[in-house]
Amino acid sequence: MQPEPECRVLSIQSHVVRGFVGNKSAAFPLQVLGFEVDLINSVQFSNHTGYDHWKGQTMTAEELQTLYEGLQLNDVTRYDYVLTVCDPVMGDKRNGDGYMYVPENLLPAYKEKVVPLADIITPNQYEAEILAGRKMNTEKEAIEVMDILHAMGPDTVVITSSDLPSALGDNYLVTLGSQRKVIAGGSRVTERIRMEIPKVDAVFVGTGDLFAAMLLAWTHQHPNNLKIACEKTVSALQHIVTRTISNAKALAGPGKKPSAAQLELRVVQSKRQIENPEIIIHATTI
After folding, report:
1. What whole-number distance in Å separates Cα of residue 85 and Cα of residue 17?
2. What digits encode the pLDDT tens for the residues 198-238?
């Protein structure tokens, strides 16, 4: 009897006891989609830091290395993928202004050491701009930014959210993707896609981690079709956030703003949408 085939992911991210962020957000969808997932928790908190209170510990570099050495000693470090959500926690925009979550003196390490090792990166607009060293206010400028990021090493770049103008109006975010690939005959081509995503009136935590995990899964299933991989990823995520906000409003009651606890992503309840997402957000080729 031949051993069963498996695809194994090492996911190095934060962990929370309650809720869905980091490894808690990434592991379930990957497992639902058939991946074996090994977890290294870089941080262990009671809950994410959007709550009023949190407690927990941060692993040191030496502690993380010790865990990996234990795997090495047992010769179990052969992985198909390593998932670590570095770029989505670099920074974001608050009230229209850029805001770094990490010290700015770490930016060269991301640009020179982390990004060149990655096959896929999923920055938001602000992160893409600071990595590329230039702004993107138009689709043309966004393509130029993605090309700069390609030149750093990654073959797939997906800007998960941007405030570029949408033909559908102000209530839409724009997602952009670019994938370099080799076609028959050995020539290289670049596939570029654009998606218009309805805004949801809530702030969620863990969506970036969830996005990265599902994009990994669907690019594995569709390695040469970024359009389909992004449509499945974004559609599943839209199902989840729509379900989450509806449930949160029901829990909060009429006229009340949902709490951080009520806005925890409804990941487990969305198992069917993760496994077989109905395509509700379509991508266009640019």
Report:
1. 19
2. 998 888 999 999 999 999 999 999 999 999 999 999 999 99
Give the CA count within 13 Å in the CB-facing half-sphere of 243: 17
Which residues are CB-contacts of 167 (< 8 A; sequence separation ≥ 6)? 196
Percentage of residues in the chain having pLDDT higher than 70: 93
Q: Which neighbouring-strand residues pair with 156? A: 120, 179
Is residue 209 annotated as a catalytic residue, yes or no? yes
Which of these is catalytic: 80, 92, 119, 209?
209
What are the two backbone dihedrals, phi and then psi, of residue 236, each rounded to the nearest 5 degrees?
A: -60, -45
Q: Tell the residue number behind the tokens 């590329």, with chain if given.
A: 132
Separation of alpha carbons 198 and 93, rounded Å: 18
What are the contacts of 221-227 at 24+ separation with CB within 8 A? 224/181, 225/191, 226/156, 226/158, 226/177, 226/178, 226/179, 226/191, 226/193, 227/191, 227/193, 227/283, 227/285
CA–CA gap between residue 260 and residue 23 (Å, rounded): 18
Provide the CB-side half-sphere exposure for 167 (13 A, CA): 4
Positive or negative CA dihedral for 38, 40, 46, 49?
negative
Residue 120 in contact with residue 85, Cβ under 8 Å?
A: no
Distance between CA atoms of 11 and 212, rounded to whole angstroms?
Answer: 11
Looking from the CA of 242 toward its CB, the CA atoms found within 13 Å total 12
Helix (H, G, I), strand (E, B) or coil at 99: strand
Distances (CA, A) of 190 to 56, 102, 156, 204: 43, 32, 9, 32
CA 83, CA 120: separation in Å to the nearest integer?
Answer: 10
